[in-house]
Specification:
The chain has one domain (about 5-85). About 35% of the residues lie in helices and about 20% in strands. The protein has four helices and two strands; from the N terminus they run H-H-H-H-E-E. The chain has helices at about 15-25, 25-30, 35-40, 50-55; strands at about 65-70, 80-85. The longest helix is centred in the N-terminal third of the chain and has 11 residues, at about 15-25. The N and C termini lie far apart (about 35 Å).
Length: about 90
């Protein structure tokens, strides 16, 4: 996640990776993060989190992360890829 405004071009070293961790393991918590926090911590470009949340909403509560890659090259335009697999809901046969 890239910061804009006063911190334009700076990458929040901790917020993005922590957000992605919680995105997988605690999606219900991530959904409750307000736009103000996202804008403060990740800048206007961080609003892309909404697209990630839409995708996450299409999955089961429990998922298995098969692959994760994120990179911030010299240009400071970070990018990420995450491959998640639905896990069966508790008490529901696969």
């Amino acid at each position: 996640m890239r910061a804009q405004g006063e911190r334009a071009g700076l990458i929040h070293r901790y917020y993005g990776p922590q957000w992605l961790d919680r995105f997988v393991s605690a999606a219900a918590e991530v959904v409750r993060i307000g736009h103000t926090e996202v804008l403060r911590e990740a800048g206007s470009e961080g609003i892309e989190c909404i697209m990630w949340l839409i995708m996450r909403g299409a999955l089961n509560e429990q998922v298995k992360m098969l692959h994760r890659f994120d990179h911030a090259p010299v240009s400071n335009t970070a990018y990420g890829l995450m491959l998640l697999e639905n896990q069966p809901a508790i008490g529901v046969p696969p």
